[in-house]
Write a structure and sequence with these properties.
Layout (H helix, E strand, L loop, with lengths): L2 H8 L3 H9 L6 E2 L5 E2 L3 H14 L4 H7 L3 E2 L4 E2 L3 H38 L18
Antiparallel strand pairs: 1-2, 3-4
């Protein structure tokens, strides 16, 4: 199948598929006309890539893990090296979440201080920008 068909079948834009190819995650064959030609297995591979990206893995990590993947979930072959990569990514995410929580707490503290120091006559009079409304 050509890249447009793979895009339609997976819901992934063609530029993303080309990016996956550049990162070594997809390996199409080139037809005589130079067009990318994918096998039926490419649909499963793209599904696996998308699910692993949703888990917060980088394309470099996915390239390492993909040969161990089976099924759309995907299920990964159990091995110590694989667990090491997954645990390292989880540790990185936990660190990032911790940093975000600390930043959020600090921002709350700054907002509280500003609100306490705001003269009563200026509260709600339009001198302070309104909070953005969630979409």
């Amino acid at each position: 199948m050509l890249i447009g068909e793979l895009s339609r079948r997976t819901g992934v834009h063609t530029h993303q598929l080309r990016y996956y190819e550049a990162r070594g995650l997809l390996e199409p064959h080139r037809g005589a006309n130079g067009y990318r030609e994918y096998t039926g297995d490419a649909v499963l591979t793209v599904t696996q890539i998308r699910r692993l990206l949703e888990a917060g893995l980088s394309t470099e990590e996915i390239a390492y893990l993909l040969p161990c993947a089976t099924g759309a979930a995907p299920e990964l072959e159990a091995c110590d090296e694989l667990l090491e990569v997954l645990r390292a990514r989880l540790h990185g995410l936990d660190d990032h979440i911790g940093t975000l929580v600390r930043s959020r707490q600090a921002l709350h503290g700054i907002i509280d201080t500003v609100e306490r120091n705001l003269p009563a006559e200026q509260r709600g009079c339009g001198s302070v920008r309104p909070e953005p409304t969630p979409a």
